[in-house]
Amino acid sequence: MERKQLEYFLAIAAHGSFTSAAGSLHVSQPSLSYAIRGLEKEIGAPLFRRLGRGVALTPAGEALLPSARRVIQAFARFHTEAQRITQVVSGRLDIMTVTTLAVDPLAPLVGAFRERHPGVELSIVDPENAAAVVSAVRNGECELGLTEHGIAAEGMVVLDLPEQELYAVLPPRTELKPPGPITARQLAALDIVTTPPGTTTRSAVDNVLASAGATTRVAVEVTHRAAIVPLVLAGAGATLLPSRLARDAASRGAVIAPLNPPATRHGVLVFLPTQLSPAAQAFVELVKEWESPARMPRDHNL
Questions:
Q1: Number of domains in the chain
Q2: Helix (H, G, I), strand (E, B) or coil at 204
Q3: 104: domain range?
Q4: Confidence (pTM)
Q5: In a domain, 241, yes or no
Q6: Residues 98, 149: contact at Cβ < 8 Å?
Q7: Of 104, 142, 265, 122, whose CA–CA distance to 199 is shortest?
Q8: Can you state the angle between helices 18-25 and 3-15, rounded to 10 degrees?
Q9: What pLDDT, in 10s, does the model give residues 68-94?
Q10: Residue 248, Cβ density class (10 Å: 0-12 exposed, 13-18 middle, ≥19 buried)
Q11: What CATH number has the domain bearing residue 128?
Q12: Extended beta strands in 64-213, E state
């Protein structure tokens, strides 16, 4: 059994297709198929079954999946050990993050990390929900995860990320009376654009309104987070967003206002308490020394 065979196996499992996996690996499909046939012969069982144009794992494939991930991660650690000794970090780093944390603080963290370690290739994916991040790290799908504070993460190392102040984001030409910060009760009287229950964006809105004994008056519920700001700009309703996203919305014409009292949220970085790859360890060290960007002035854009 060779490392290349396991890498090919994991790529097919991830893409659900020999063709897509071959493209991502930059190898020919016949070479990929040949390697998998050799692996199946060595194991003594088929690893994939055909599903139309794609493939799915057989029971033998499902059993191999977690072990294959651990072996490849171990190979990566061994391969980069000498480079770590010479302070040169390379390889690949897989990160899973909820969408709101992908913008802030992950984006600036990744920028700083790439400046220090240009030889590292990063893969950033989003989960079905905040809890799925912990499961993905635990199962070896990724080394590092960014998720919401308060998500159960027993047996994991949990590092707090910088706090993010939440801002009300309102349609263009909205006149606040009185001008200035907006209270939770004022927000409760507005039509809200947000994501479905159980998502991080919706939880932030619901929690702020619950502090005033109010419920969310949802005007538009949208699964695509990227559609929230365009909907607000089109006048469909208001929403709550972290400061960096709120600034971006303001630059496009939205009216933004801080909350009174202020409301914040922050995420966490989670990883297993085992030896990390040099790339993952370097990223963790960056997070530990990272300083939160200065908060937006309280009268910004008002």
A1: 3
A2: helix
A3: 89-162+266-289
A4: 0.65
A5: yes
A6: no
A7: 265
A8: 120
A9: 988 888 777 666 565 554 555 677 899
A10: middle
A11: 3.40.190.10
A12: 91-97, 120-125, 144-148, 157-160, 164-170, 182-183, 192-194
